[in-house]
Every structure is written in structure tokens, then in C-alpha cells.
Design a protein that fits this description.
- By secondary structure, this protein is an all-alpha fold.
- Helices cover 64% and strands 0% of the residues.
- The protein has 17 helices and no strands.
- The chain has helices at 10-27, 37-45, 51-58, 67-80, 84-96, 100-106, 113-116, 123-131, 133-141, 148-158, 162-169, 179-195, 206-213, 219-231, 239-249, 252-264, 273-285.
- It is elongated and about 70 Å long.
């Protein structure tokens, strides 16, 4: 494993690994996912990282970063690592987390290039940078505490009962689900708990038959979904929040099937027809229903 320099905090290392994923998206092309083997090994083996750190890092495998997310990561790291020499050491370690051919390309990328060559800029550049220091400091102070995807994940965890349930199933045997797949599992379980009664999760029920026969979930997944629904039964959710989470976290075919399920099967008596209609309308707004 590529051991990082000892002076860096766990937050700095987490942000740096997120940035390494960004660099792989920027420079890896169609084969970028094959470049994540070393990165994944480091994320799993680095003792300074907590499970919460690993959950956030994995978010950066889900889609290419936005410009704002890349800016957020670099500015946060620069605030935590203020000296050029330390940034150079950190940048070198970030490159070591990537395959050799990719690291050569990544070293020239604007995201990290200036960290690797401190003191090699000309006088005009340094004067220009100095003239912007005041506004740059103000800009840094206004940076959000989280990137866009991290903020959305925090909103997911803030849903009643979601964080505890997520921890039960994230990268657990036998499915070893990723962050995104675990979010989808928990979200669908919450939808079941909201729209159906506990009795409807018993063996041989229409709900179970639909999950297996129409949604094509495995027996294991059906059991897990019904268990989650029972766990979350005491919580109450807004139909709009559940529909949003389904849009964000689930695959299109699962969104369509769950929407059809809510539209056709008998609902729990606690759930009103308005709840069902609202759920369907939110999904319809994006063309998912």
C-alpha cells in the first residue's frame, strides 16, 4: 500500500482520495473504472480512515465530478495544507494512488499541477496571485462544509432511521452493496413501510410476489426489504421525500416498478390516496413514471 506522509490528518487524506477519484474521471477515459483497484485497496487499508470517511470517498465512484466539487476539494485541501512543500508531498502521494500511466497524465492536470511544482512560476504570475489573495481568502471562507454529493448523502442519512439501517447493509454479506445500492435498498424499504402494512410483508403476500415477480429482486433482497420495512414502520415520511430519494438513488427500472407497485396494490389504511398521488406526481415530473 502507498503509505501517505505522516503529517496529514484523516480529513486531509479523505479529501485527497476523493480528489484522486476526480483525477481518474478527468484523465482515465473509458477505462477509468479499471484504474480504481489501487485506490480501493488504499481506502480499505488506510488505518486513519473511519467508516464514515470510506462512505464519503465511495460517493466519488458514482459519477464524474462537477467543477464546483473539484473546486471544493482543492480549496479545502489547500486550507488544511497551507505550505507549498507539504502540498507537493501530498500531491505526489495522490499520484501514487493511480496507475503509473494515469499518474503521468494526472500530474499535468490543473487540479494538482501547481502543487507539484511550487516556486516554478514566473514573477508576473506571482504578482497576479498576490493581488488576488484578499478575494481568494474571502472565497475560501465562504466554501461549503460539504460537496454537492456529500450534502445529498447527509440529507439521506438524516431521514428517520436511515443511517442505522444503511450501516446494517452497506458492504455486508452476502450482497456487499456499494453506497448507492445500499441507499436504494433503504429507500425502497422505507417506501414499503410508508405505503403498506406489516402484515403485507408476510410470506406469500402480494407485496412479496410483486417484489420478486415484477421487480425481479432475489429472495434475499425481498427478505431484506421486508425486514427494513418492519424496522422503519414506526417512522413517518413525506411522500415527496421518498419519491425524491427514489429518483436520486434507484435505477430507472426500479423506479418504474416501485411507482407501479404503489399505484396498483392495496395500501396501508394509514396512507391516503393523496400520498399515493403525490408520490406518483413527483416521479412523473422527471419523466420517470
Amino acid at each position: 500500500m502507498k503509505v501517505p506522509p505522516p503529517q496529514f490528518s484523516s480529513e486531509t487524506l479523505r479529501l485527497s482520495l476523493c480528489l484522486a477519484y476526480c483525477l481518474s474521471w478527468e484523465t482515465g477515459g473509458k477505462m477509468m473504472r479499471e484504474n480504481w483497484t489501487t485506490l480501493r485497496e488504499i481506502v480499505q487499508q488506510l488505518d486513519t480512515l473511519k467508516p464514515e470517511d470510506r462512505r464519503l470517498i465511495e460517493l466519488y465512484e458514482e459519477s464524474a465530478p462537477t467543477v464546483n466539487e473539484e473546486r471544493y476539494l482543492t480549496r479545502r485541501i489547500e486550507k488544511l495544507v497551507p505550505t507549498p512543500k507539504a502540498r507537493q508531498a501530498l500531491g505526489t502521494w495522490i499520484l501514487s494512488c493511480l496507475p503509473e500511466d494515469l499518474s503521468v497524465t494526472a500530474a499535468r492536470h490543473p487540479l494538482i499541477r501547481d502543487w507539484l511544482t511550487p516556486g516554478q512560476r514566473g514573477l508576473p504570475f506571482m504578482l497576479l496571485r498576490r493581488s488576488r489573495s484578499v478575494s481568494a481568502q474571502t472565497e475560501e471562507d465562504s466554501l461549503p462544509a460539504e460537496s454537492e454529493r456529500e450534502e445529498d448523502f447527509a440529507q439521506f442519512l438524516a431521514m428517520p432511521g436511515f443511517e442505522k439501517t444503511f450501516e446494517q447493509y452497506w458492504h455486508r454479506d452476502p450482497k456487499d452493496r456499494t453506497n448507492k445500492l445500499t441507499r436504494a435498498l433503504v429507500t425502497i424499504g422505507a417506501i414499503l413501510s410508508h405505503f403498506f402494512s406489516a402484515e403485507q410483508f408476510n410470506k406469500g403476500s402480494a407485496v412479496r410476489s410483486y417484489l420478486k415477480g415484477v421487480c425481479h429482486f432475489s429472495d434475499i433482497t425481498v427478505d431484506e426489504l421486508c425486514d427494513i420495512a418492519r424496522q422503519l414502520e414506526s417512522h413517518w415520511y413525506q411522500s415527496t421525500d421518498l419519491a425524491y430519494r427514489l429518483l436520486v438513488d434507484a435505477r430507472l427500472r426500479d423506479r418504474l416498478n416501485i411507482d407501479e407497485m404503489v399505484s396498483t396494490l392495496d395500501l396501508d389504511e394509514r396512507t391516503t390516496p393523496e400520498d399515493r398521488q403525490t408520490f406518483h406526481e413527483v416521479l412523473s415530473l422527471t419523466g420517470s413514471a
